[in-house]
Amino acid sequence: MKMGDGVEQAIHSVAMLSGLSEGGVLSAAALAEFHGVSTSYLLKHLQALSGAGILDTVPGPKGGYRLAKAPKEISLLDIVLAVEGSAPAFRCAEIRQRGPNPVSDRLFAQPCTINAAMLKAERVYRAELAKTSLADIGIELTAVDDGSIAARGCAFLEIHERKTAR
Amino acid sequence: MKMGDGVEQAIHSVAMLSGLSEGGVLSAAALAEFHGVSTSYLLKHLQALSGAGILDTVPGPKGGYRLAKAPKEISLLDIVLAVEGSAPAFRCAEIRQRGPNPVSDRLFAQPCTINAAMLKAERVYRAELAKTSLADIGIELTAVDDGSIAARGCAFLEIHERKTAR
DNA sequence: TAATCGTGGATATTTTTTATCCACGAATTG
DNA sequence: CAATTCGTGGATAAAAAATATCCACGATTA
């Protein structure tokens, strides 16, 4: 059972956006460069996030992505589901009903207790993720050239603007 | 995030073994035929289960697999970990430290809160799976030719014995 | 002693994930 | 108003896992 790398990229991207000042946006290219990952791949997840209503997009020059709602209203679960889809990790293939001696009688068509137990654990997992919001994650900080400390998103935004200003 | 199909096969196999009468065993071939899955593939998981101390093996003719301990002592988590490995689903690649502006200073080398939150959710998930034992799952029942009801394992064991008796 | 079973490693096959590319439409800047 | 910059969405290629198979070996029991 492995979670895709896209989830980590997505969460860090959203976390960085949550540290931006009012009106600030970051382009997909900037986010990808900042994290050292493939732009086209990150783009796919950013689109999933905007499709899920977590991010807003700002088209045109100076455009990019920003949060669609308050950090407090965005949970880790929201992000995970947007990127990985909402299908449960455990999929019961009802192998009870296969083979030469299946539990085929309607009388025995009661729900698979194994499936039930696995899904319950997954509900608990999701509930835990739902408890944690972006606000709980906190803003990642970084050191700037002048020795001060700033939110990573803001710091990189400046670097990026300086570059595009040339 | 998807859990391998092997998990379902493994759990059903173990559940079936828990329904056997004292001294009874089922061969890998029987378990595979019963569930309608590939023998060689199931074998891989059965070996993982015996390696993890969940199943015992009985070599020789009339040999096979049986539980290594009481159903109450075997949790779903034990089985999942034996088959899927114990690595967490979420692997933090520390992408904070990548890109042109990494959080590299020792001062900021505090643990990644995102990773912490994801791993906590996974601990909760595993704790829930650990709560459920084979005894809680119950024995799967099936209808037999003569109209009676029997544990699926026993029923198939008889079928299998009849076949090998020829 | 012959048949049966599990062991373990090597290997092929299939599926999924990851990653990339391109043509298009929309919005903004100058 | 035109050029630039951005996101959209589908198609596609490359890489990685999962799934499935095979074979030679050792152990056990009828």
UniProtKB/TrEMBL annotation, chains A, B:
It comes from Rhizobium leguminosarum bv. trifolii. GO terms for cellular component: cytosol. It comes from the Bacteria. This is Rrf2 family transcriptional regulator. PANTHER family: HTH-TYPE TRANSCRIPTIONAL REGULATOR YWGB-RELATED, WINGED HELIX-TURN-HELIX TRANSCRIPTIONAL REGULATOR, RRF2 FAMILY. InterPro entries: ArsR-like_HTH, TR_Rrf2-type_CS, Tscrpt_reg_Rrf2, WH-like_DNA-bd_sf, WH_DNA-bd_sf. GO terms for molecular function: DNA-binding transcription factor activity. The lineage of its organism: Bacteria, Pseudomonadati, Pseudomonadota, Alphaproteobacteria, Hyphomicrobiales. Pfam families: Rrf2.
